[in-house]
């Protein structure tokens, strides 16, 4: 690696990260607060914010602001979260994966779980089962006012799990492909944005906490029979990456969950019932990723195969500080 100067306490992190991420191409991250100057291929000019490849060229960072030379936030190693004793909110907690996440949160010692659902009566059984540790809240991801009202109600929340999502079967040239996309993206992508905007200030006020987003293996691979769903999960994954960086500034951990086919109504509707694994693997993967400070969670066999194939890309481009460094 070439030389870094600037004398910050983060230099060791940057050096370690550059070695691990670069794979032979030197990368440098430029902050927006006080642009460093690079000699060599760029001349002595300020660089735009972001990652820059500086392959094999001797370079130097000169930086007057010391600690302002800060590595990207997603390179932090200390964003772990334990659910024991915490307050949780889960969208779509009435059935499928969300219901199992709720049960696992309770089993791991969560003090209270807000079940954010469209129909309050759909969690009657869960309230009977868990008593006042389960608090139903009305929330529809397609209705912004319900999301804002839920954020007001759940003002003591430490962990938000945006689990609710929808899938339509639509091939690329289907008559209804645009309608399917508009419906799914409104809930799977815009709904996520609304959740993040409404709950980020609440999490910040409560000390940081964590935000978990249910993405999919379809975030990385499209499927002909539900291509608009895959496009929406790719969009939500990219948004989740940016959210991780932004929320790390307020000490909020973010986890992106990427299940393969899981045994719920959604997988059955998509015709995937013969290849499913139980929802419990997703719940376990979420709380393990939170406890270990990992950004990605790949819960099941198909997910792990995807992660294996995709791992080099994560390592070199997306970044997940907790993934083991390559030899
Ligand atoms: N199952 C899989 O194979 C699989 C794989 C990868 C990722 N995922 C993701 O995992 C998450 C959960 O999936 P699942 O399999 O549990 O799905 P599911 O069984 O179909 O359940 C969907 C949940 O989302 C809720 N929901 C739907 N539209 C909503 C809206 N507009 N506002 C609020 N809630 C809404 C549903 O509530 P209602 O009961 O009111 O309809 C239900 O609780 C989704 O984000 C999905 O994309 C699933």
TrEMBL record:
It is an enzyme of class 1 (oxidoreductase). Keywords: NADP, Oxidoreductase. It comes from the Bacteria. The keyword NADP applies. InterPro entries: NAD(P)-bd_dom_sf, Sc_DH/Rdtase_CS, SDR_fam. PROSITE patterns: ADH_SHORT. One of its GO terms (molecular function) is 3-oxoacyl-[acyl-carrier-protein] reductase (NADPH) activity. The keyword NADP applies. Pfam families: adh_short. Its EC number is 1.1.1.100. Belongs to the short-chain dehydrogenases/reductases (SDR) family. NCBIfam families: PRK08264.1-6 (NF006120). This is 3-oxoacyl-[acyl-carrier-protein] reductase FabG. It comes from Crateriforma conspicua.
């Amino acid at each position: 690696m070439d030389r870094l100067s600037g004398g910050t306490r983060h230099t060791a992190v940057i050096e370690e990260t550059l070695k691990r991420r670069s794979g032979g191409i030197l990368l440098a991250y430029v902050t927006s607060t006080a642009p460093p100057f690079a000699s060599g291929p760029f001349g002595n000019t300020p660089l735009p914010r972001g990652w820059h490849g500086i392959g094999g060229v001797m370079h130097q960072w000169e930086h007057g602001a010391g600690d302002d030379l800060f590595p990207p936030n997603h390179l932090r190693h200390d964003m772990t979260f334990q659910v024991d004793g915490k307050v949780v909110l889960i969208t779509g907690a009435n059935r499928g994966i969300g219901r199992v996440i709720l049960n696992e949160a309770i089993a791991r010692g969560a003090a209270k779980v807000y079940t954010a659902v469209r129909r309050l009566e759909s969690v009657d059984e869960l309230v009977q089962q868990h008593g006042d540790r389960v608090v139903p809240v009305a929330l529809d991801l397609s209705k912004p006012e319900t999301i804002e009202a839920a954020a007001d109600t759940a003002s003591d929340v430490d962990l938000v799990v945006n689990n609710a999502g929808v899938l339509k079967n639509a091939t690329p040239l289907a008559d209804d492909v645009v309608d399917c996309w508009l419906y799914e993206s409104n809930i799977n992508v815009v709904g996520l944005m609304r959740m993040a905007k409404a709950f980020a200030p609440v999490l910040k006020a409560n000390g940081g906490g964590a935000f978990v987003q249910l993405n999919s293996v379809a975030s990385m691979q499209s499927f002909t029979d539900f291509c608009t769903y895959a496009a929406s999960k790719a969009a939500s994954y990219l948004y989740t990456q940016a959210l991780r960086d932004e929320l790390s500034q307020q000490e909020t951990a973010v986890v992106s969950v990427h299940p393969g086919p899981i045994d719920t109504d959604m997988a059955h509707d998509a015709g995937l019932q013969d290849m499913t694994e139980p929802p419990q693997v997703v719940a376990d993967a979420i709380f393990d990723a939170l406890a270990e400070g990992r950004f990605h969670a790949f819960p099941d066999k198909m997910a792990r195969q995807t992660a294996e194939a995709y791992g080099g890309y994560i390592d070199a481009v997306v970044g997940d500080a907790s993934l083991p460094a390559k030899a």
